[in-house]
Amino acid sequence: MKKAFSLVFIVLALLLVACNPSVSENSSTETESPLVREQDTESDTLGHLHPNPVETSPPIYGGTLQFAVQTTRSFDAHQRVGYGPTATLPVFNQLVMFNINYKDTVLENIVGDLADSWETSTDGTEITFHLHPGVKWHDGVPFTADDVIYSLDKMTDPTRSAISDWFPAYESSEKIDDYTVKVHLKYPSAGFMLNLAAGESQIQSKHLAGTDGQSADFMVGTGPFILDEYLIRVHIKYKRNPNYWKYDQYGNQLPYLDGVIYYTADSATSSDMLISRRLDLRSTTTGAATTDTYNYLTQGAPELLWQRREKEIGTVFFLNTRHHPLDDQRVRHAMGLMIDEESLIIGYAGDARFGIINSGILPASFGLPKDEVVKIMGWDKSWDERVAEAKSLLTEAGYPDGFTLNILSLGAEKTQGGAAMIFAEALRVNLNITSDVHTTSQTELFERLDADNYDLFAQALRAEVDPTQLTTFVSSDGYANYSHYSNSEVDRILSGLDQIIDPEQRREAVWGIERILLTDLPMLPTGCFIANLMPYYPWVKNLRWNNMAYSNICRLEDVWIDESLRTK
Question: Domain ends where: 208, 238, 269?
Answer without folding.
Answer: 208
